[in-house]
Structure formats: structure tokens, C-alpha cells
Amino acid sequence: MHVTFTIKSGRKDPALEALFSRARMRIERRLEGTPPDSVTLHAEGSLNPHLKECYFTLALALPSTRLASHGVGATLAAALRDATRELVRELDRHRSHLARSSSTRAAFRAAVERDGFSAFDALEKPVVEDPRAEIEQALPQLLRFLRAELKRHGLWERRPAYRLDVRELADEAVLHALQQRASKPESLTFSRFLIGCAYDVVLGVEDRARLRHAES
């Protein structure tokens, strides 16, 4: 398994590293039979002193899919535990889905051989929920969050003419959330998932600013 473990802000101490090792073992136990070289686990933690919250993101890339979880807690350790619990649930759900799919494919082949038709013709199409109402409701909080994070990261210009367009960043966060919606944990509301995606957008702005500064 290829593993990366980074802390954007905050402190990576031995206790946190030991906790991550245990989380990694829980994940590896569920991946028996999967070639280790085909699996990538990325862990990233960060501290938000403005909201007095810590965030942890776990992203797991498998040959069959990509899974991600977002944890929130009063400490980095609590956020890591939250993210680990959600990722393990998502991984278990994915494994069950693969098992059902394998069983369904076997039934499909048997039906074709027996009856000469596709058993999948009778399956119902999934219902896609419309998140627009949640987005509109979360927009004021999203804008406040982005402004506060830009100030905290030193990305908010004092002169209005040079300020970043917060609404454009909000649109970027919404687009990112919609693109990654399949990885949203069921226990997490879309508005909360949107805030996590907005934090990723802020980190991206910070990385781009750091790159411009290095090139100048």
C-alpha cells in the first residue's frame, strides 16, 4: 500500500502517528486479496483555530473505486477517528456491493444462457437527489467560512480591488462537492460536506499563492 500522511497545520506527534497506524491496519485487514501496489491511502489533517475544529481527510484509491471520508473533531486525533470510522463503513459497503455485483453477474449469465434475455432490463434506475435547496441554505455559512479562512491563511488583501472573489471560490467549492458527491458519507449532510470541500479549495488557493511567490 502506498501511504502519505501529512498535517497542513497543527502538530504530528507520536500519539497521532500511532493512531494512524492502527487506522491503516483496520483498512488493510479489509483489503486481503487486493495487490498492495494497487492501493493508495492519503491522509491529511489540519487545524482550524478560527472555528476551533480539526479536520481529517482520508482518501483511498482501489483498483475498483475511490473512497474518501472527512472527519471533524476538537483535536486532530478525534478528527482522524471520525474519518477512519466513516472510511471503514464506506469500505465495508463497497465490499458488500462488489459481492452483490459478482452474484448478480453470475445470475445474469445464467439467465442469458437459460432464457436469452438480460436480467438487468428489469432493474430500477437510481433516483438522483437534487441538492440545490441544501446549497442555497448553506451559501451564507459557506461565504462566511471562506472569508474567515482566507484571512486566517493570509490570503485576504486589505485593498478591496485585490481581494479574491469569494463567490467564485464558493462556486468552485460547490462544483467540487458535486463532482465528489459519490464519496460523501451517508451520515454527513451535504452542507457539511460542502464546507469540507470549501476548505480544500482554500488550501488550493494557498498552494497556488505559495507557488507564485516561489516563482517570483
Content-based structural category: alpha+beta
Strand order of the largest sheet: 1-2-3-4
Backbone shape: globular
Multimer state = single chain
Note the main sheet: 4 strands, mixed
* Helical fraction: 40-55%
- Percent of residues in beta strands: 5-15%
**Discrete helix count:** 5
* Regions with little confidence, pLDDT below 50 for 5+ residues: 117-128
Explain this structure to me?
This protein is of the alpha+beta class and 216 residues long. It has 5 helices and 4 strands. It has a 4-stranded mixed β-sheet. Helix 3 crosses helix 4. The chain starts with a strand and ends with a helix. About 6% of the residues have low confidence.
Supply database-style keywords.
54% helix, alpha+beta, globular, 5 helices, single chain, four-stranded mixed sheet
Describe the secondary-structure layout.
Elements: E1 2-7, H1 14-29, E2 40-48, E3 53-61, E4 66-73, H2 76-115, H3 132-152, H4 166-179, H5 190-215
Parallel strand pairs: 1-2
Antiparallel strand pairs: 2-3, 3-4
Structure summary:
The chain has 216 residues and is an alpha+beta fold. It has helices at 14-29, 76-115, 132-152, 166-179, 190-215, and strands at residues 2-7, 40-48, 53-61, 66-73.
